[in-house]
Request: fold
Amino acid sequence: GAGVSQSPRYKVAKRGQDVALRCDPISGHVSLFWYQQALGQGPEFLTYFQNEAQLDKSGLPSDRFFAERPEGSVSTLKIQRTQQEDSAVYLCASTASLGRYTDTQYFGPGTRLTVL
Amino acid sequence: GENVEQHPSTLSVQEGDSAVIKCTYSDSASNYFPWYKQELGKRPQLIIDIRSNVGEKKDQRIAVTLNKTAKHFSLHITETQPEDSAVYFCAAIPDDKIIFGKGTRLHILP
Reply:
């Protein structure tokens, strides 16, 4: 079946603009994660959803970052008033199980955000 | 909090030779250690993982070893092939947090 998809794949924003990044997890996957990957670094955890519930948002770097998954499937990561330090690849991953890290995480291709 | 150190940051090996990437972690509560491979411009993919109740796991040319006492785990790739060229990330999971290492860029030389 289809894997995790993300859109857009590339986004260029002017500093101060708002952006919305979309993640379509594998159908039926309960758990969904967002990560931020800076150039040359490993992914850093942002937030975690179990179905529609956001159980952990401790990795969100500031209150400009907001994520939602209202129907327990598609998720959107929104960044308000983007700044240059927000430039990174934003990865989404999903797993079939309720246990957060007890199951293989399937990553999407990422959205590369460049803030000018 | 947990800290994961990964070494080396870059590794070049001749095709056919073995490659070893090492990671150390700080939180003794970590009990699950996955390894991801990320080819240029592509998504990370899980290649192997190990849980704290075993010391070694193999899958064809890939193996992972875990030393809980020393808090380190290693990825071993034998008989390397050109398609092994990628960035490899280790990770540790303590208390429902996943912490990735900074990655190792592996180059397979012809």
